[in-house]
Write a structure and sequence with these properties.
heme; Cytochrome p450; binds protoporphyrin IX containing FE; 4-stranded mixed β-sheet; iron ion binding
Length: about 500
């Protein structure tokens, strides 16, 4: 029989051996394949994960000055390639669109959506079928309808009236903007809006967007390289999984609610279209439509639409208060083009080049999705002489494209006029890619552009925006998969004369 001491020693030895074995495995994983792009040296085991803790997009742009526009990072045994600057992003996403259209099978994504759904789906049948279905639903129930602009404008009215209730007193616009924006996507997905006081829906959005933030925490990177830490009872990944379960159950329940009273072949919204498709393809074992993928895709459409558009508008409000001259110039243009008692309409957009330039500059300058969504290679390939194996994680540093000195003069300066030519007309810029490029480019771009224009123009038509007592809030972005401003208070005062004017 062993004594307690011997048993402990034996156990200790086993533990050490195991640890050694894991380290060797990890170090083997960390070796780069031949011809792989170079990159900054990382620590054993965790690689470069720690360097990504503060501002990963800025760190990556700096590293590209040393290692080149295409370089590699070690995400704890996961070799990733980072694309920096417009030229190489275009070379990969456009000139090799097939190769770069995949998503990486990281343990986090595997656990969240089993690589199904739409946004995170592998590049294959599931993605093709879901992308086609979503694109056609967005057309049928969204911008393909003549009345859709009016529906967004109607939403604007609710939104402006809700702001009016503050009577010029300071408030944080985050919730109102989130509600208005998600009401518009909900029209397409569920055929109706949600009530502003539908707190369950708002809670779902809240914890979902918390997950967008958590997705880039060091804990989650660690989980991707060492899924074993999933058994630990603490850590941010735990919070993320709890949130994801709650979101899943909520979506399941509202999908049930909105598919009641459905008549097959007479779809009223995305859910109905999906269920029709699911029934028609029952006999096809390869078809990807399933209740689970319905839930994943609905969740992805909700969060991809809300988290981005909302944050662009929050930055827009912040910058208008920060630069009163620019705000004034936008308002002058609105007053010139739009009749006083009418809301701005999409037909008037082409006559408002300055407002367009301001919105574009906000998208360029603020980079709401700084690293896009992670891509992966669907087969082995060569870029600029470097070989990249199949299934390599690819990070598109969209921030570095929007601050690319080759394409932008003084990129650190907020300067809407860069989008205007000498006769004041709006000009498109090639290196402006907030919606990314290639097969996986944003599915909601058209909807997002409509919403941003209609909400922003209606807001500035009715209100003058300023900070309470002129106090400038923190302008640093809050980090996550998206960059958003920290919560800030704003005063919105009625502009038109004859209306009641309140003061902050
Ligand atoms: C200003 C607002 C928006 C911005 C800046 C934005 C940006 C992006 C970016 C950078 C990507 C990654 C593309 C890639 O993988 O290379 C993306 C993907 C996506 N976006 Fe958006 N987006 C916005 C609004 C929306 C809206 C309103 C919707 C829908 C309601 C939406 C739905 C999607 C979907 C489904 C994908 C994944 C596409 C795929 O994997 O095939 N987005 N978006
Ligand atoms: C969203 O829709 C609900 C229900 O129609 C409406 O009551 C609410 O005012 C809308 N929200 C906003 C911000 O307009
Ligand atoms: C400015 O752009 C508009 C529209 O693209 C074009 O018609 C016009 O000729 C341009 N003006 C100058 C001075 O380049
Ligand atoms: C993806 C897929 O197989 N879709 C098919 C489902 O069934 C309908 C009707 O039979 C076909 O038109 C689709 O092509």
């Amino acid at each position: 029989m062993w004594t307690v001491g011997q048993a402990c020693a034996a156990l200790g030895c086993c533990a050490l051996l195991l640890l050694f074995f894991i380290m060797v495995l990890q170090l083997l994983k960390q070796r780069h394949p031949k011809g792989f792009p170079p990159g900054p040296t990382g620590l054993p085991l965790v690689g470069n994960i720690l360097a990504l803790a503060s501002e990963p997009h800025v760190y990556m742009k700096k590293q590209s000055k040393i290692h080149g526009q295409i370089f590699s990072l070690d995400l704890g045994g996961i070799s990733a390639v980072v694309l920096n600057g417009y030229d190489v992003v275009k070379e990969c996403l456009v000139h090799q669109s097939d190769v770069f259209a995949d998503r990486p099978s990281l343990p986090l994504f595997e656990k969240m959506t089993k690589m199904g759904g739409l946004l995170n789906a592998k590049y294959g049948r599931c993605w093709t079928e879901h992308r086609r279905l979503a694109t056609s639903s967005f057309r049928t129930f969204g911008y393909g309808q003549k009345s859709f602009d009016d529906k967004i404008s109607e939403e604007c009215m609710f939104f402006l009236d809700a702001i009016d209730t503050y009577k010029g007193k300071p408030f944080d616009p985050k919730h109102l903007i989130t509600n208005a924006v998600s009401n518009v996507s909900n029209l397409i997905l569920f055929g109706e809006r949600f009530r502003y006081d539908d707190t369950d829906f708002q809670h779902m959005i809240e914890i979902f967007s918390e997950n967008v933030e958590l997705a880039t925490s060091a804990w989650v990177f660690l989980y991707n390289s060492f899924p074993m830490i999933g058994i630990l009872p603490f850590g941010k990944h735990k919070q993320l999984f709890r949130n994801a379960d709650e979101v899943y159950n909520f979506l399941l329940s509202i999908i049930k609610r909105f598919s009641e009273n459905r008549t097959p072949h007479f779809p009223r919204h995305y859910i109905d279209v999906y269920l029709d498709e699911m029934e028609q393809n029952k006999s096809d074992p390869g078809a990807s439509f399933s209740t689970e993928n319905l839930i994943f895709s609905v969740g992805e459409l909700i969060i991809a639409g809300t988290e981005t558009t909302t944050n662009v508008l929050r930055w827009a409000v912040l910058f208008m208060a920060l630069y009163p001259n620019i705000q004034g110039q936008v308002q002058k243009e609105i007053d010139l083009v739009v009749e006083p008692n009418r809301q701005p309409s999409l037909e008037e957009k082409s006559r408002m080049p300055y407002l367009e330039a301001v919105l574009h500059e906000i998208l360029r300058f603020c980079n709401v999705v700084p690293l896009g969504i992670f891509h992966a290679t669907s087969k082995e390939t060569v870029v600029r002489g470097y070989s990249i194996p199949k299934d390599t994680t690819v990070i598109t540093n969209l921030y570095s494209v929007h601050y690319d000195e080759k394409y932008w003069h003084d990129p650190d300066i907020f300067y809407p006029e860069r989008f205007l030519n000498s006769s004041g007309q709006f000009v498109k810029k090639e290196a402006f890619i907030p919606f990314s490029l290639g097969r996986r480019h944003c599915l909601g771009e058209q909807l997002a552009r409509m919403e941003m224009f209609l909400f922003f123009s209606a807001l500035l038509q009715r209100f003058h925006l300023h900070f309470p007592h002129g106090a400038v809030p923190n302008l640093k972005p809050k980090l996550g998969m998206t960059l958003q401003p920290y919560p800030y208070p704003i005063c919105a005062e009625r502009r038109q004369s004859g209306q009641s004017r309140a003061h902050c």
